Amino acid sequence: MTPEKLIQHAITAQKRAMAPYSNYFVGAALLTDSNTVILGCNVESKAYPTTLCAERVAIFSAISQGYTNFTALALITKDGAFPCGSCRQIIHEYATNIPIYIANESGEYNTRNISELLPFPFG
Ligand code: THU
Question: What is the DSSP letter of 21?
Answer without folding.
Answer: T
